[in-house]
Design a protein that fits this description.
Blueprint: H1 6-9, H2 11-23, E1 40-43, E2 60-63, H3 65-71, H4 76-81, H5 88-100
Antiparallel strand pairs: 1-2
The chain binds zinc ion.
Zinc ion binds next to helix 3.
C-alpha cells in the first residue's frame, strides 16, 4: 500500500511545503545578496519573458524583497553583476541550478568564469 501524504491532498498545504522547500534552496539564503531568511520567490528568468517557467522548480530561488523588487523583470546576470553585493560564487550557484534544470543554453552567449566548476 502506498503512503498517502497529506501534502498531496491539500493544494494549499502542498504549496506551502513547496514554498518552504524553495526558500531553503541555496543554503536558505537570498540567492543574490546572501541575506538570511529570504521570504520571496524570485524567477531567475523573468516571468514576463519566460511565462512557461512560472512554476518550474529550476527557475525559482529564494530572494529577499529588496533583491526581488530591484531585479524585477531584468535579465538576471546583467542586473546581478551591477549590484554592490555581487558575488561570483553565488552566481556560480545560480548557474549550476539553471544548468541542472536545462536552462543554461539561454546564457550560452555569456562568458563562463573558469571557477564556475565546469569539468
Ligand atoms: Zn537579497
Amino acid at each position: 500500500m502506498d503512503l498517502i501524504h497529506l501534502d498531496d491532498l491539500d493544494p494549499r498545504r502542498r504549496r506551502k511545503a513547496e514554498k518552504s522547500a524553495l526558500l531553503s534552496k541555496l543554503g536558505g539564503l537570498c540567492a543574490y545578496c546572501g541575506a538570511e531568511n529570504p521570504v520571496t520567490i524570485d524567477h531567475v528568468l523573468p516571468q514576463s519573458q519566460r511565462p512557461e517557467l512560472k512554476h518550474y522548480w529550476g527557475n525559482q530561488v529564494g530572494a529577499c524583497p529588496r533583491c526581488n523588487g530591484s531585479k524585477s523583470d531584468r535579465e538576471w546576470l546583467t542586473w546581478y553583476r551591477a549590484q554592490p553585493f555581487y558575488c561570483p560564487s553565488r552566481e556560480a550557484n545560480i548557474r549550476a541550478m539553471l544548468g541542472e534544470w536545462g536552462l543554461l543554453p539561454d546564457f550560452a552567449e555569456q562568458p563562463v568564469h573558469p571557477s564556475d566548476g565546469v569539468e
